Protein: Relaxase/mobilization nuclease domain-containing protein
Amino acid sequence: MIAKIGHGANMTGALSYNQLKVDKENGQVLATQRIMETPDGSYSVAQLHRSFEPYLMANKRTEKPVLHISLNPDPADKVSDAQFIKMAQEYMERMGYGEQPYIVFKHTDIERTHIHIVSTCVDRYGKKISDSYEKFRSMDACRALEQEYKLVPATEKQHTGNGQVFRPVDYRTVDIKSQMASVVRHLPKYYQYPSLGAYNALLSLFNITAEEVKGELHGQPKNGLVYFALNEQVEKASNPFKASRFGKYAGLDELQKHFAAAKEQMKANPARAVLKNTIEAAMHIATDETDFKKQLMEQGINTVVRRNDAGRIYGMTFIDHESRTVWNGSQLGKNLSANVFNDWWKKRAVGQRQEAEKTMAQNTLPTESNSNFVEQEKTHRLFDFLNEAQPIDDFGWIDGLGGLLPEAQGEDYEELDFANRMKKKKKHKPGRQN
Structure:
């Protein structure tokens, strides 16, 4: 079972998202705790919100008091409503929210039934309930519930105490090629991405971009890839490196095979529905683009936004580190396309600018600029699972990324590729004369 935890400031948004499922007969309220009941047993967003108002009004300093959790069993698990209710109660108790008011919604709009829990992380006195080591405690709670209810175990990322070696490229250093090699050569082993655009979205998290080049060789058309390191402004900041320097899996031919295979595998991947649900929930909770990205990052999802020179969004890509898949927004649904986000954030930015101008006009002292627009994402703990020690393959390469960077320095991938091709050439058919 996989748990996704979101924190936000908009209780009405979180309740509306779930109640809409109920209104469309794609969900139901399974259970409530410390929620005011109605004579006919029906619920509305306004009525549910009243139960949280004393906690929200008592809130002292917590910026995001809204708690939105989804519990997602494996599609093979058959969980009854009674079990879902008990699992929700036990999970909330293990996470320290057992005494809080909350509602348990069951969603049935996709084949894999799952539950959402809406609550608040401030107690009745307005004090924030500790969320220290939240992810690890959530993982422990999920493992315990899997054993108790005999659920299919979920594979979780393991964290080690070793320093990260799978990290963004620093274009100012002398070993750019080695840094890029430690990323480029291994990503196809771990992630599914169906296009060059999706691949570049993933590479951008490591300050790398790939560019297709076309030309002719001996009169024949020839296509290939070159890689560049990027600077802080997402501009090319290095000389181009041919794909052959990083091994065959970095080349265009192998990547196109990877794109085709990923496209087929992702069609039936149950992670699509979980990711879509998670993004939609974040849209209802988040206050702006920065908050939206942060909400998703806390749940192991990176958001890569592509804008043209005029600032218009033309691409939205979501990288789900739980399932290790990369999706364009339009793949997930029309409501997650680039145009939707462009209109949403444009209206939000205009509103914030007008509010800021109004505040400045009312105050004599200058106000600080809104740093939300330039908040730097800290994404790379999401790649910690790649730092685990892995077995060494036939060519002496660590099959994974534990300790890879030191071994990779000074190696020439072009030479390795050539050596591998030579090994293949030495294999002769039986009876063939030299």
